[in-house]
Design a protein that fits this description.
154 residues; elongated
């Protein structure tokens, strides 16, 4: 509980700062991929502390999952375009058209991600609210154990 209150708000603050930077520019496919990995690591770290927070915690996890989904779709389009461009060089003019479409699709999805970030993550006060929320775990582990052991005999 103390570790969660001490470390998770700082982790989330750094994550939001990174996301703000990524969403506020036209990042490279590599930069988007790195942010996707950051999102994954932050989400999994937070999920490991889910037991010490109340049900509102699920909203934060859902937000991270949605972010990860957006970034995954961008990564899929970029990776496919890159793979096709490298492995099917000049073999088929239709493939070149497909690669261009995939890159355009990735760019469009990147713009949608930025819009998503601004409208769902970076809403006024939301990042600060989540940081403050993480400073106050809801239930102490020993309290939860005591409740879970109610009625049991040794």
């Amino acid at each position: 509980r103390e570790n969660a209150a001490k470390h998770l708000p700082r982790l989330l603050k750094r994550y939001f700062k990174e996301g703000r930077s990524v969403a506020g520019q036209s990042p490279s496919p590599e930069r988007l991929h790195l942010f996707r990995l950051s999102t994954k690591h932050v989400r999994y770290t937070l999920e490991s502390f889910q037991a010490v927070y109340d049900s509102s915690f699920r909203d934060l996890i859902a937000l991270l999952k949605d972010t990860q989904d957006y970034l995954g779709k961008i990564s899929d389009a970029n990776t496919t375009a890159q793979w096709l461009a490298e492995h099917l060089k000049g073999e088929d003019p239709g493939m070149q058209t497909l690669v261009k479409r995939l890159r355009a699709d990735a760019l469009q999805k990147s713009r949608k991600f930025s819009q998503f970030w601004q409208s769902h993550v970076e809403t006024p006060g939301s990042t600060r609210r989540w940081e403050e929320y993480l400073k106050q775990p809801a239930v102490q582990t020993d309290e939860r154990d005591a409740v879970g052991n109610k009625g049991e005999t040794a």
